[in-house]
Amino acid sequence: MTTDYQQARSALGARLRELRESCPGNRLTGAALAARLGWTQSKVSKLETGRQTATADDLTAWAAGVEQPEAAEELLSRLRGLESRIRSWRRQLAAGLRPVQDVHNEAQAGATVLRAWESAWIVGVLQTPDYARAILSRFAELHRAPRDVEEAVRSRMKRQEGLYDSGKHYRILLWEAVLHARICPPSVLAAQLDRLQGVIGLDTVELGIVPLDAALKIPPGLGFWLYDDRQVIVETWHAELWLDDPDSIATHLQVWHALRASAAFGADAQRLIGRAQRATGA
């Protein structure tokens, strides 16, 4: 969670407290508001102190509970501002996996230079359908999302149309560990690695592999996408961060260049992929 995000959440909490204390008629205590809404007093406290993120339903109920329903739209606007930076998986996946893939398709379609670093899995734009199916299935299980895996796979495959757009430039870095990660059956991984071998020949793609034994200027850290040096998307287990402030962009660009300095390209990258292929035994 970013400092800016926490500050915004705290500011929202302060506004909630202000609305409660300015309830028409008399000052409403936290306990009284909790009783009105059928909540625990601790929930009211956590929302007001910025220790819990309110849902849209929470904010609508709060505005009604403090007898100021006209404040609901303002509160919801503040929440949308929060979610433009941090998007929890619980909320994103409430409607299934497919809508999330569609959002990422749109984000990538609007970018010309796309830089990526990934230390956990092969990035979606380079995945085979079977590999994508394995990855998405695991996330559906983790977050108990609706099982629209096949629709999500089809949406993710559409993203690959950009690889054949001469106006786009993909600059993708993978840690060698992802070539060996058995998140899928060996035969699926072998086919995925074969796909990577073919990608190296595309003139729109620069694929670098950072060897496990490479000297690193910076720890591998979390994976991220950087679009046209204007937006960074970082994925965590709990949420995605969508960042567009200059400091975040500059930091991630610096990280990307530091990791690129340790990467192998061309024939050297193909040798690393080939070694991983042989290790599958498939």
Q: How is this structure best described in words?
A:
- With 282 residues, the chain is an alpha/beta fold.
- The chain has 2 domains: 82 residues, lambda repressor-like DNA-binding domains (434 Repressor (Amino-terminal Domain)); 193 residues, Endonuclease, Chain A.
- The protein has a 7-stranded mixed sheet.
- Strand 3, helix 10 and strand 4 form a beta-alpha-beta unit.
- The mean pLDDT is 93.
Quick structural gist:
It is built from twelve helices and seven strands.
Keywords:
alpha/beta; 434 Repressor (Amino-terminal Domain); Endonuclease, Chain A; 2 domains; 7-stranded mixed beta sheet; 12 helices; 7 strands
Largest sheet: 7 strands, mixed
- When the domains are counted, the total is 2
Contiguous low-pLDDT stretches (5 residues minimum) are none
CATH architecture group name of the largest domain: 2-Layer Sandwich
Got a strand count? 7
User: What fraction of the residues are assigned to beta strands by DSSP?
Assistant: 5-15%
The N- and C-terminal alpha carbons lie at a distance of 41 Å
CATH topology of the largest domain: Endonuclease, Chain A
